[in-house]
Amino acid sequence: MTDTQWSEFERTCMEQALKIAQQGEGQVSPNPLVGCVLARDGEIIAEGWHDHLGDLHAEQAAIADAEARGVATQGATAFVTLEPCNHHGRTPPCTEALLWAGIKRVVIAAEDVNPTVRGGGIDYLKKAGIQVSQGLLEADARQQMHAFMHWCECRRPIVILKAALDCNGNVDSKSGPPARFTSAESLDEVHQLRKDCDAVLVGVNTVVRDNPELTVRRVELGSGKQPLRIVLDRTLRTPKSATLVSDEHETLILHCDGSGDGLECETILMPPLFSESEEGVDLVQLLDLLGDREIQNLLVEGGPDVWARFLADDLVDEAYIFHSKADLGEGLNSGISNTVLEAAGLHLVEKRESGVDTLQIWNRN
User: Fold this and answer.
1) At 273, phi and psi to the nearest 5?
2) Distance of CA 203 to the CA centre of its chain
3) In terms of Cα–Cα distance, which of 291, 297, 19 is closest to 144?
4) What domains can you pick out in the chain, each with its CATH number?
5) Choosing from 47, 59, 301, 318, which is the catalytic residue?
6) Band of residue 120 on the pLDDT scale cut at 50, 70, 90
7) pTM, to two decimals
8) Distance of alpha carbon 224 from its chain centroid, rounded?
9) Which of 355, 231, 216, 365 is nearest to 286 (CA)?
10) Adjacency order of strands within the sheet including 43-49
11) pLDDT for position 4
12) Which of 78-82, 103-107, 262-266 shows the lowest per-residue confidence on average (mean pLDDT)?
């Protein structure tokens, strides 16, 4: 069916399923965001979403919601943003739950792109006598699950670059100690980005200079987990006293010289990852490594050398650039400009205020 052949009520149901699916953001990875609405006789009777990893899937949550409301599900239609799973994982198959609930029709926004399960749920439901329709608001669903879709198809994470620049395009003062110069609202945005990503990456210069935590603190983490912190450190210059080494959260240091003994975090010796220069990194190999670890969203927070490599290799999928009115004086230039971002294949898709700062959002699509 094309979008014009769906009824207004069907579209309303799927729009609601997409809306509630968003409530699992930052909490379900490596699973996708999924929402489900149950409807009968032109009325929504129950809804559910995948809230956090290991919790009920959206279809199961919607059925549980109907039970809690005392509403029968027999003969209802399920509107679900992703093809129901038909395998045993952390939870039982959603296809069996739909059969048990007596669902007569399932409307699916997007087919699962995971090659190990693609089409299996649809085939199972059809063979069981359930009417299946698909493609309603498919583009919206795929966009909502774009990190999951990208990971399934490429086995690599999407790359999100984050940078904060002063009025001269600088990121740091050469003379003074490191200090935050963006607004509180911008800082909140950054912490939301961290919550929504599986991993945060910086170069060792950022660790030595700023001693960052790289954790989610200013927004509610909920049922999610702190992102994996990754440091590119060719010669293991990361201080043993660095916060991201000594605290309780997970850190991964990638290096090609020296021993990680004495560092209270995971280190991986990967000589092929680095060239002779500090910033010379085989980023494709890096992304393959992270993809194998089920990392679907990688937030690249700095610094300029690391940004330059990702941009030069056309590996940035999204960029969040915070422009501050502050003047750091003679500082370290970011190397980021509209021209550089456009040359990396990115397009400006949004520009808005973030407190007293201006936030530009760039996208590859």
Assistant:
1) -75, -25
2) 20
3) 19
4) 3-151 (3.40.140.10), 157-363 (3.40.430.10)
5) 59
6) confident
7) 0.90
8) 12
9) 231
10) 43-49, 35-40, 77-82, 105-110, 131-134
11) 57
12) 262-266
